[in-house]
From TrEMBL:
<protein>
    <submittedName>
        <fullName>NGG1p interacting factor 3, NIF3</fullName>
    </submittedName>
</protein>
<dbReference type="Pfam" id="PF01784">
    <property type="entry name" value="DUF34_NIF3"/>
</dbReference>
<dbReference type="InterPro" id="IPR002678">
    <property type="entry name" value="DUF34/NIF3"/>
</dbReference>
<dbReference type="InterPro" id="IPR036069">
    <property type="entry name" value="DUF34/NIF3_sf"/>
</dbReference>
<keyword id="KW-0479">Metal-binding</keyword>
<dbReference type="GO" id="GO:0005737">
    <property type="term" value="C:cytoplasm"/>
</dbReference>
<comment type="similarity">
    <text>Belongs to the GTP cyclohydrolase I type 2/NIF3 family.</text>
</comment>
<dbReference type="GO" id="GO:0046872">
    <property type="term" value="F:metal ion binding"/>
</dbReference>
Length: 73
């Protein structure tokens, strides 16, 4: 079964709806296209160069983080 980014975000948003975000949050898909396929994903707290390097090394085509790549509280 092939999953798309929109399938993954749909599942995440069932337990963390976007309506719960703070006014300063940049939640949801920040980079990429909803119709891109996902074969492997990496979970992290923050987007860092090391996280992106690891995702590339592991062949992940999706990085899911708690904090968005652009964050201005």
């Amino acid at each position: 079964m092939t999953m798309k980014i929109k399938d993954v975000t749909s599942v995440i948003e069932t337990f963390a709806p976007l309506r719960w975000q703070e006014s300063y949050d940049n939640a949801g898909l920040v980079v990429g296209r909803e119709d891109d396929e996902v074969h492997a994903a990496l979970l992290a707290v923050d987007v860092t160069e090391e996280v992106l390097d690891e995702a590339e090394r592991l062949g992940c085509d999706l990085v899911i983080t708690h904090h968005p790549i652009v964050f201005h509280p």
